[in-house]
Amino acid sequence: MAADLLNFKRVLVVDDEPDVLEALEEVLSMCSVVKAQSFDEAEKLLENEYFDIAVLDIMGVDGYRLLEIANRKDVLAVMLTAHALSPEDTVKSYERGAALYVPKEKLNDMPTYLNDVLEAKLQGKNFWWRWFERFAAYYNKRFGLNWQRRDKEFWDQFHGWQ
């Protein structure tokens, strides 16, 4: 079921790096992908066109401001980052309404993550229902085994949302 959820979806991808935009367009070939390289370009697209999902870089295009716009327009927004990759920004993305937070190193698996979000929407689940399953081992390796300690209360609640 989940493998087909992305077919023909309209996806806005926003990043200031052309190679990232091209890579996303390639891995999301089952979708109709619209690319934007700047905040202004993405803002105009979000305000004037329909999208099922937006994939927003955090740095370089003011991704958190774009997230506010996406939320207001009822567009599911997935945050994609390399430079803002941290447990703190993960929590910040969740709290600001992102449907998911994905490290750029995992860009090639974006169809899986977007399918997770669409499946959650269909089933009325928390969008982040599979986040821990998908990224806990990566975070353990990258940030050490105690990376949840700083926001312990959040992560303790998070486990109940899955």
Structural class: alpha/beta
Got a strand count?
5
Q: How does the overall form come out from the CA principal axes?
A: globular
Biggest sheet strand order reads 2-1-3-4-5
Distance separating the two termini: 19 Å
N-to-C SSE series?
Answer: EHEHEHEHEHHH
Any idea what the radius of gyration is? 15 Å
Can you give a write-up of this model?
By secondary structure, the protein is an alpha/beta fold. Helices cover 47% and strands 15% of the residues. It has a five-stranded parallel β-sheet with strand order 2-1-3-4-5, sandwiched between helices. α2 (39-48) runs parallel beside α3 (63-72).
Please sum up the structure shown:
The protein has helices spanning 18-27, 39-48, 63-72, 87-95, 110-123, 131-143, 152-161, and strands at residues 10-14, 32-36, 53-57, 76-81, 100-103. With 162 residues, the protein is α/β, with parallel strands linked by helices. Strands 2-1-3-4-5 form a five-stranded parallel beta sheet, sandwiched between helices.
